[in-house]
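Example (one chain per record):
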Amino acid sequence: MKAQFAVCCLLQSATISMVALPASAKGALIVPGHAVGSLRLGARDAVLQKLGHALPKHEGDTAMGRTWTTYKSNNGSHSLSVYTTRDGTGLITTICQVRIDSPYFHTSQGVHAGDNLLRILRVFPHARLASRFTASNKRVDLYDDKKNGIAFEFKPAADASQERCIAILIHPHGKSVTEEYSSEYEDLDDKPA
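Predicted structure:
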């Protein structure tokens, strides 16, 4: 079986570090509106402790209890970002969104980072352009399927068949990804009507 790089806790809840693991269909499944692997929306902070050390930079308004935390694969080529909020007491942290850029993770229909825009729109016909922004000096188009709770980041291209998905996000069903998502990026250019 071909080895893939992935965040360990998504595949094995007892493992803390990030290592190369064999492919596992269930452990790599993106379930819109619910989970990436075993990392589920609504889960508490104990799950995050199993991910190991995050990158030093946390994005968001930590004073208000809202944070994007990023974890990298061993080889540094892929990342997992988790958006969390704290309750009014500051004691309970809840996972609200998850962003993954590894093609290892996929939906039950086989959609993964690296797929082109046309394929994703065929599989998720409710996805609409939700925002355009600049991240790391690169233009990004964000398509959101609010109904199903999944969004896709794309590197724009002149031809839609050439636009490649660079990351997939899951968020609660029926809620727009941009309601919370914009805090991850400093330069949110515009939001289509």
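Caption: The chain has two domains: 3-18+27-100, 117-190.
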